[in-house]
Amino acid sequence: MIKKINVVPVPLALPILLIMALFCVPISTLNAQEIDLLLRSRRLIEPVQSRYAIEHRRESWSAAETALIVCDMWDAHHCLNAVRRELEMAPRMNRLLHAMRDRGALIIHAPSSCMEAYKDHPGREIAKTAPAAGNIPDNIGEWCHQIPSEERGTYPIDQSDGGEDDDVHEHEKWHDQLASQGRNPRSPWQKQIELLEIVDGDAISDQGVEIWNLLEDRGIKNVVLVGVHTNMCVLGRPFGLRQMAKNGKNVVLVRDLTDTMYNPLRWPYVSHVAGTDLIIEHIEKYVCPTVTSEQILGGEAFRFKSDHRPHLVCLLGEKEYNTAKSVEAFFRDQLASTFKYSLVHADPEAPNEFLGWKELETADVIFVSVRRRTLPDEQLQLLKTKIRAGTPVIGIRTASHAFSLNGGKPGEGYSEWPEFDSVVLGGNYHMHHGNKKPTDPKTSIRVVESAQRNPLVSGLLPEGEIQVNSWLYKTEPLAEGTTVLVSGRVGERTPHEPVAWTYINPYGARVFYTSLGHEDDFDTEFFGELLKRSLLWTAGLPHALATTIKPSGAE
Predict the structure, then answer these.
(1) Can you give the pTM of this predicted structure?
(2) Same domain flag for 281 and 411
(3) Mind giving me the DSSP string for 378-424?
(4) Tens of pLDDT along 54-85?
């Protein structure tokens, strides 16, 4: 008996082989998949105050129409700390290259000024032999310092010193070591870091025209950038974000797989990682969206080991006290190095909806300055899920009636959360004492006797009372378990009401609330220091809190 053998019919197999041979189509391209991404950008919502809101949108990209460019991940650098961060980031980046390659995307390795090391590499030939495109943009072969959209903003960091953040003595030893290896200490790179694998089918180029030709030849519409340094090469190279954006590619930066050249001793005098955040924010406003690596790899986004900042998500949705402006300035000036913060604004065109609300998914602390908003069910459910999971909360002023209406019913698909005040904050807001007019007596506040040694208020106020512009809320009695720190009254005619307190809510989370939060309060040293301390306490940062408290009698 003759055994039957299954074979692929020639009429089917031959065309596929011919296509692959004639057009050099990689096998991975034939099996290309869809890549689902959550793009983050910033939209101008308040032109006068130049206020931007985070926005997210989901897109699905064909991997066959996508390239990932690795920018300047060199084997050495003149800044030792830059090398350390690159070594830390590279293994995660290599995993991303494998995942994108496996899905069918083109990988382009672009270690600038290192092409001599790859002159005989097949990947170099892939780039050099791509047919000339019929639409080569003007100046695509040149460095791009700015695109027109950036003219609307102010560049967020001072990098005029080159951005090196090394210890001086370590820096000298590092340059001596580079020189002993026969490298130029100021430009020691010779090839790409070996932790990033280059495999068959990958391309290698540092030339804008070559890379453009390759993208057009492969029908690539989407470009993903990883590498260093964001504020220099990643933005400015001929194959960088600016050139790709201005010439019509759907380009994104992988914001957790990049780094900056920024020295914290320069303006705006924030930590190195906070400087990177400022550049990413600039990119999201004026250049292109960003994504994160876990969208492809799963798990959590990459974070440098030195970056211990909790993610603070601020919900901002009230018009009475302009806290959107006050809070933004406060965090930028006071806490950018301590917290990785996201400002989530109510949509001016749909006040009950919050732009960028998905930032809540990774929140370590939630800050609330919202007044009488009902939320779409999906947004409210995420907020409840995070809080019920034990995420700490800090609320100011109108947070006590953030998600409840004063009469009326929510629209279809929207919901209230009136228990937020009593259950989450431990409060009991039932209107105010009516001292709103300029001619009315002001609110006088004091640290309560039992809280004089509490680290949140110790040494903040002189003995006696001070006056503030926030009119007094009726909050008594509070939930059992609250610790009142500050009380207030209006003249002699009202009893003292709790003005600031701490609470461990039923979900086991730390909570701080204050009915202060008038725009003028942010101009006082007392309120700013109270807010800073309460944020550190709520986030569970005892060391940082201890360093903010001056010894009694200190200048």
Answers:
(1) 0.91
(2) no
(3) HHHHHHHHHHHTT--EEEEGGGGGTT--SSS-PPTTEE--TTIIIII
(4) 999 999 999 999 999 999 999 999 999 999 99
